[in-house]
Design a protein that fits this description.
The chain is globular, with a radius of gyration of 19 Å. It starts with a strand and ends in a 6-residue tail after the last strand. The chain is built from 4 helices and 9 strands. Helix 1 crosses helix 4 and helix 3 crosses helix 4. The strands form 3 sheets. A 4-stranded antiparallel beta sheet has the order 1-2-3-7, with no helix packed on it. The protein has a 3-stranded antiparallel beta sheet with strand order 4-6-5, with no helix packed on it. A two-stranded antiparallel sheet has the order 8-9. A hairpin with a 2-residue loop joins strand 8 and strand 9. It folds into 2 domains: 72 residues, N-terminal domain of MutM-like DNA repair proteins; 124 residues, Helicase, Ruva Protein, domain 3 (Orthogonal Bundle). By secondary structure, the protein is α+β, with helices and mostly antiparallel strands. The protein binds a DNA duplex (16 and 16 nucleotides) through helix 3.
Length: 220
Amino acid sequence: EFARRAKYIIIHLDETESLLLHLGMSGRLLFDGPPQGRHEHLTFHCEGGTVLRFVDPRRFGLLLLAERSGLASHPRLAGLGVEPLSPTFDGALLHRRFAGRRSDVKAALLDQRLVAGIGNIYACEALFRAGISPRRRAGGLGRRRCERLARAIVAVLEEAIAAGGSSLRDYVDADGRAGNFQNEFRVYGREGEPCPGCGTPVRRIVQGGRSTFFCTRCQR
DNA sequence: AACGCTTCCTGTTCGC
DNA sequence: TGCGAACAGGAAGCGT
């Protein structure tokens, strides 16, 4: 029995215990298939013969055994922000969560305590679609911009999920299949290429140690 | 509080 | 070809 919160995969083992799993940057969870070599850190042999392999070359991932009853208050899960695909997420909520934040809106989108589950790719893509500069202060965004951003976040996530996710290198689903959304990136990873909106070369900057890709003309 | 920088680790790509 | 540098889907932990 599987669940998810933010970027954590939750596997309910029985009535009392659950696994908390995070793939980090390079993690994979693979059902069956051949052994994966030295980066296969944990292998589950399930009832019925199914094998589940946790593979993570960079070891930024996480796998914890947790009490099911205490999951909501687990240190890793408590404090996570709203799920962007939940019905309660909208521009007004984003506006409230951003209020008073002095950091760049790009950094705020990556802050899992504000909105949960947005990573570097989808932060860049959502800001592009919303026409908002990643360098804008989060707390300075007005309601209208927050509404546009909220809609862009939902659209990007839904499209990415429908496309099976984004595979830069490592990511594959549990059946070993790569995603396709990387073919739909409008700015991420496209430094120097023409913006799909206006042709201006896409710029890359670094914010909080992470690459940000954006169009200086379309995103204000 | 909230912020920004550093760190964890391995693999791949890029420029000389 | 070899070799170091830069870079990569994340987020905790640390100072300030």
